[in-house]
Amino acid sequence: MPDGQPIPESWLEDASGFRGHASRLVNPSNVEEVANLLRTCSETGEPVTIAGAGTGVTGGRCPKGGVLLSTDRFRRLEIIEEKAFVGAGVSLSDLQAATARRGLFFPPDPTEWSASIGGMISTNASGSRSFMYGSTRRWIRGLTVALMDGSIHTFRRGQRIDFPVTPLPAPRARKHTAGYYLREPFDWVDLFCGSEGTLGVVLEAELALLPVPAQLLTGVVFFPATELALAAVEAWRSVSQLRMLEYFDCHSLRLLRSRYSDIPQSAESALLVEQILDGLPGDPVEDWLDRIGSSGGLEDSWFGETAADRERFRVFRHTLPELVNDEVRRLGHGKLGTDFAVPVGQNTAMMDIYRRHLEAEFAGNHVIFGHIGDAHVHVNLLPANPGQAARAPELLRELASEAVRLGGTVSAEHGLGKKKAHLLPLEYAPEQISAMCSVKRRLDPSWLLGRHTLLPVPAEFLHTS
Fold first, then answer.
1. In the predicted model, is pLDDT for residue 5 greater than 90?
2. What does the pLDDT look like over 302-355, one tens digit per residue?
């Protein structure tokens, strides 16, 4: 975009409604243009914020001054055998469409398919299939990254960081993306994945793919009581070849009934399940009927084995965040949601904490849904009045502390960005955050890239923010 031309408002906010400002927007089309921009900004001291598709919910792509750098024009998409070479600006939907034509798929399944691959790498995104496949990090085989000094590097999986770093502990949760990944084997790819655009500009990735399973069984199991659904979660985690185990509370179903009138009226909660049938002995459908019966599920639950069925259930799952966001916009208090995860063994304890606090203070004005198989559900507060809106941020902080106390994390898949950076000290001690800052200084000594995202800005740079 030419200098002096106003930046479209849509570029200055993300899906949470968080807003920023910038002096200019640049949209380079090749590696050399990115290198030259970063080199110039390093010389002038102008901060740089990377802009993906804007689907994030933590304000990471929203600048606080300086240059807004779009990766939208990095659109290489080439599939060779079971690998994809993908530009940072390619959307997840385009990647999945291209892989499907080859009988392949990219395992991570974030809710928002319009997310860019660069953005997914930035936050180490995961999604509903993470129960089996884990997060984005697991499927990266190489990254092309531009650093703030203008140098361009291609890092291969297994390439060890070549400067001293202080190892940091990992939470015991199955999913976590709060702070830098600094643990053995100290891999460059691991470091950049989940660094939220604060260490380098990811331009291209080599991703591993998998063959599409020949047979899948997908269903939405409805329960007349929450306790029955939560008990089923614990019983069903060990189901062979289960790749999806998602939760919807009664308030989630209330929102969804505006689009799905066939949700059973007696349903108080639901679980979305998906199982790979390839190679399974016996009759999987009969097995599920037995599980539903023994777990107290409703007979009019939904199941299907066709691609159309799977798409219907995918849309059902992904419609809920859309409805929540519509409600957030209507209420006008901004996005007030969690991304906490705890160890699987603490799932029941964390759900009890959520339900106790929310029913006491936000009864009827919240939803709980998401990746319960990983003990990672999303709580969204929907304040009904100014008093609840004022209370909400502190309550979310209290819930974050509870998750950490149970061995969990303050961010499992969305990152912390600018909106939630204040939660990092709940999970890491000052000396551990200092270790992250040391890595940041090594790669971005003037603290220009992604300033105000994730890590506190040192005092000497605040005057240039």
1. no
2. 999 999 999 999 999 989 999 998 999 899 988 899 999 999 999 999 999 999
The H or E element spanning position 140 is strand 140-146
Written as one letter, the residue type at 133 is Y
**Based on the number of CB atoms within 10 Å of its own CB, is 9 exposed (0-12), middle (13-18) or buried (19 or more)?**
exposed
Query: Do residues 336 and 18 touch, judged by C-beta distance below 8 A?
Result: no
What percentage of the chain reaches a pLDDT higher than 90? 93
Rounded distance between C-alpha atoms, residue 337 and residue 335, angstroms: 6
User: What H or E segment, with its residue span, contains residue 284?
Assistant: helix 284-295
| Predicted confidence (pLDDT) per residue in 210-255, tens digit | 999 999 999 999 999 999 999 999 999 999 999 999 999 999 999 9
d(CA 289, CA 297): 9
What's the per-residue H, E or C state across 267-280? CCEEEEEEEECCCC
Q: How far is CA 59 from CA 22, 55, 204, 220, in A?
A: 14, 10, 22, 33
* Tokens matching residue 231: 């008990």
Label residues 314-329 b or e (16+ Cβ within 10 Å = b): bebbbbbbebbbeebe
Evaluate whether 411 touches 339 at the Cβ level (below 8 Å).
yes
Q: Residues 208, 284: contact at Cβ < 8 Å?
A: no
DSSP string, 11-55: GGB-TT--B-B-SEEE---SHHHHHHHHHHHHHHT--EEEE-SS-
Neighbours of 418 (CB within 10 A): 23
| Separation CA 298–CA 370 (nearest Å) | 20
Answer for the pair 383, 363: CB distance below 8 angstroms, yes or no.
no
User: Coil, strand or helix: which one is 186?
Assistant: coil
Phi, psi dihedrals of residue 431, rounded to the nearest 5°: -70, -30
pLDDT value of position 17: 87
**Full-model pTM:** 0.95
* Buried-state track 391-408, b at ≥16 Cβ within 10 A, e below 16: ebeebbeebbebbbebeb
DSSP 157-170: TTPBPSS-----PP
SS3 category, 245: strand
Tokens 């080859």, residue?
A: 102
Dihedral sign, Cα of residue 417, residue 143, residue 318, residue 283: negative
